[in-house]
Amino acid sequence: MSLRNLVEVYQFIWMLESNAQQRLAWQDAAEARIARARADQMATAQLRAMLEANPSGQLGHSRLNDPENLRKSGLL
Q1: How far is residue 17's CA from residue 74's CA, in Å, rounded to a whole number?
Q2: Confidence of residue 24 (pLDDT cuts 50, 70, 90)
Q3: In 20-37, which positions are buried (b, 16+ CB within 10 angstroms) versus exposed (e)?
Q4: CA distances (Å), origin 10, targets 16, 54, 72
Q5: What is the 3-state secondary structure of 12-74?
Q6: Could you give the CA distance from residue 26 to residue 11 in angstroms, rounded to a whole number?
Q7: What's the mean pLDDT in 23-30?
Q8: Is 74 a residue whose pLDDT tops 90?
Q9: In the chain, N or C: fewer CB atoms in 10 Å?
Q10: Whether residue 53 has pLDDT greater than 70
Q11: 75 φ, ψ to 5°?
């Protein structure tokens, strides 16, 4: 087998591997689109549930580690 034949075989195998990797990338992209759509649906459902629980849309002005509220609740 000459060097040229070896190179052609190597290029053919490389092409097959490249096509396999491309198919995997397409499959990953499809799964990412499905996951993104599912996350959007969950966020929409959560927003809808929050608005049903508090229809005015005012969900408060709470802050984390607010010293005044911590004192009022007896935690400080």
Answers
A1: 65
A2: very high
A3: eeeeeeeeeeeeeeeeee
A4: 10, 65, 75
A5: HHHHHHHHHHHHHHHHHHHHHHHHHHHHHHHHHHHHHHHHHHCCCCCCCCCCCCCHHHHHHCC
A6: 22
A7: 96
A8: no
A9: N
A10: yes
A11: -90, -10
